[in-house]
Predict the 3D structure of the following.
Amino acid sequence: MKLSINDKIAILADGAKYDVSCSSSGSDASYKTGELGNTHNSGICHTFTSDGRCVSLLKVLLSNVCVYDCAYCINRVSNDIPRTAFTPRELADITINFYKRNYIEGLFLSSGIIKNEDHTMLLLLQTLRILRHEYKFNGYIHVKLIPGSSKELIAEACLLANRVSSNIELPSSKSLALLAPDKTKEKLLQPLKHAREITMERNAKPISMSTQMIIGATGESDFEILKLSSNLYQKALLKRVYYSAYIAVNNHKNLPIPEFSVPPLKREHRLYQADWLLRFYGFSYDEILRENENLDIQFDPKTFWALQNLHLFPVDVNKVSQEVLIRIPGIGIRGAIKILQARRFKKLGFEDLRNLKISLKKAKYFIIADKDYQKSIPLYEDRLKLALIKSAQDIIQPSLFDMSIYTGEI
Amino acid sequence: MILLYDGSFEGFLTLVYEVYYQKLEPKVIYKKIPSKLCFEEIYTIETDINKAKKVFTSLQKTFSKSHLNTIYHVFLCDSQNFEYDLLSFIQLGFKKQNNLSNITHPSIFYIDTLEKEYLRLAHRMYGFVRFEELDDKIFYAKVETKFNILILLGNHFNKRLGNHPFIIHDIHRSLAYIKENNFRGIKEVAAFETPLHSDDEKHFKTLWKTFFHSVAIENRKNHKLQKQLVPLIYRTYMCEFQDD
Ligand code: SF4
């Protein structure tokens, strides 16, 4: 049966959708006149899906044919599903036409393993070559590096793409051995290390890289997960780690049963918040959690941390530095900057903070502002917890995509 | 005292001039005569290009580039009654530039917040604008927006679309940003024939809709969240939200 382009896009978008690392921000390639496209450095969402995820890139597989058999993946070789592939030309044409109509910021290209690793990487590269060289496309391209493909191919991918990534899939080597026998942590990180070396040789700045891991398919604690992320950030290997709540698609003896499993969306949300604390709020993973602990579902990680560290509170918002301000529950980086700016002109009380549209719902328990502080609840963990829960409309809005541009403030 | 001006930028600058030279102390500023009866004294500003130019020159001398931009941006929030606060923003700035960062002052805070909203809207529309290819290969987009962001949209797509000619049509304001041949800029559009689409247009629209529906994850449906992220008012021209 011959599939139409429309059938192909349906199948190949479906096969790629569980991969969440779709941000197109933070890239600074600038446009050149006469060529098509530029990349915008604060991330543009072109639409939002019915599950509330930002669509920024045309995220598809070149092919959903795969010779591997990863237990958690819909495209594994042992699944009986319709298989298809774009030709590089077909995909380049769709990308250009979507881009011109402003449906997308660019392309996010991945693929199952067709025949072998190098063959697959080459097909991905052909698509990129048509886009960059023939169509002079200057928009955003994110390409998955195929673990196990040769160094020259990875080098070319780094030249053509704005961002490259390789998923570490699962948070530990043990889980990998169990569920993805063809993969090891070393093999999955290899292309990233290559890419980093290669781009560092060319110019001082390494290419932007990210990875993804699946949450809830295996038993690792949030502590282990955050420790792993934190290591990857510290080595400056990665710009982002994405967390993806496991959606059970296959039956497998070592995996949750599809009929009974619910994707752990709240946990994923808390992980994104904690990750945010690692990257922008100056927290270390062992401040956020203790060995083998999981993130609290009821309280966001910053509030939870504050409750464990009440001896540091209350803090005086008119005196403390930005680093301390951003550790106050309910005050984000934007709020802290407003406070710093405003307090040059006057001593700030609760009323002033409210006028600055800084929510005091959580913060009021942890601060002193001029003559104001909250007097009704003593600063004890259990009393505070109760008060916070009562006042809390801490409604979690689970979203697969990192919503940080909108809700990054914790 | 109530001040009345014609809603143009020149008119507003003239108003600033009169406030200074006639020592006016307006309580409210309107673009048109209020429909409700009021007992306040109404003073109508006659737009005067020369007075406007004088104010403009001294604004340029005193205000930083980014504060000048703030003034333009806020002025383009045309569905808002920003006049009173923008006037005091300007007065405070003339007194002392440092005043402009005092966000504990209600007018400064208002202007600051309004400009942020303006820029957020523009940023959102960078994503939500949809072009259609016309049979003469021009890319054409219709927009309806709360504020006048046409100039920002034009600049953005100038960079994005390279040498391709395009038109962004602001339906309610009857304005269009046009890039064609050697012209680029904003023109008034009196009447516009519904254009014919290119042969490919339907094909790519269909592909896009298919893509849009296949990337959604069934187990995670959350229409409320979607509505928050793409409020209905933005959906008019986004083809993925239209049924055929
Ligand atoms: S290699 Fe990738 S596409 Fe193939 S089965 Fe494993 S996860 Fe799925």
